[in-house]
Specification:
With 269 residues, the chain is an alpha+beta fold. The protein has seven helices and nine strands. Helix 5 packs across helix 7.
Length: 269
């Protein structure tokens, strides 16, 4: 039985992401947050009981290999990843990596404002190509509830299609900054703040541009970003019906018209 429905698959192909609600439960998310609070106290003296120690934002750039965290990478999440990238095609590492904690980033900006800076795709450790196996999927795990204006990740829906078209013009590959310069040389739009409940996971296209959202409400926002890397390069020329959803999404971006954006804005890294 499939974990993702037709609507989720269509969303991934067209918008660049879909959401697996309740990938892990709220109690597990709470236990993982405790582990993150402990690590922030160890690394930077950021204490839950002392808001005076809270910076606007803090990033833990490491994997937390403790049971409270690894237990949140559930069988149900593994099944959803497999449905998007294909059975036997990803590395199967059940770990949560980079932890961007948002305390009050952008609180001085107007409600509803869209960040103009910080736009990127992940992957500064490899050269980007249209068929690269290095990232596979971007997974955004919500380890706290994220309400509107609560500092959720902001994405540019459909930007993955422009990224695919740029990369297809550069078979030699592109550095991180070269890719950003090319994609962001024209305005992007369709800006959406990713909200949801603790335990939801956003399964995002590796080519989807995103940035840290402005936070006006609620307690500190905890998410974790990690990748579901592939075992081999993508194949965009499959004709035997074995193309994965990820491969189909890139093929659709290359074969279809260029994306159009609502409320376009010039954005920067």
């Amino acid at each position: 039985m499939s974990v993702l429905g037709a609507d989720e698959v269509e969303s991934f192909i067209g918008r660049g992401y879909c959401v697996l609600e309740g990938a892990f439960d709220a109690a597990a998310a709470r236990a993982a947050r405790e582990a993150v609070w402990r690590r922030m106290a160890e690394k930077a003296g950021i204490r839950r009981d002392d808001p005076a120690t809270w910076p606007p934002a803090y990033d833990i750039e490491e994997r937390l290999a403790v049971p409270e965290v690894t237990g949140c990478f559930t069988d149900r999440l593994v099944a959803a990843i497999t449905e998007l990238v294909g059975p036997g095609r990803w590395r199967g590492e059940r770990t949560w990596g980079f932890w961007p904690v948002n305390f009050s980033f952008g609180a001085d900006r107007p409600h509803g404002a869209v960040p103009a800076e910080g736009w990127h795709v992940d992957g500064n450790w490899f050269r980007h190509t249209v068929d690269s196996p290095r990232q596979g999927l971007l997974l955004i795990g919500l380890f706290s509830d994220v309400a509107p204006n609560g500092g959720g990740t902001t994405v540019a829906e459909g930007s993955h299609r422009r990224t695919a078209r740029v990369l297809a013009r550069h078979p030699e590959g592109m550095t991180h900054l070269e890719l950003f310069d090319a994609v962001l040389s024209e305005p992007i739009g369709n800006f959406t703040e990713l909200t949801g409940s603790a335990g939801d996971v956003v399964l995002a296209h590796p080519f989807l541009f995103h940035t840290r959202g402005f936070k006006h409400t609620g307690p500190p926002r905890f998410i974790s970003n990690t990748e579901a890397g592939l075992l081999e390069p993508l194949r965009l020329d499959r004709t035997d019906g074995s193309a994965s959803v990820l491969e189909r999404s890139i093929r659709a971006a290359l074969d279809g018209p260029p994306p159009s954006f609502r409320h376009p804005m010039r954005c920067r890294f």
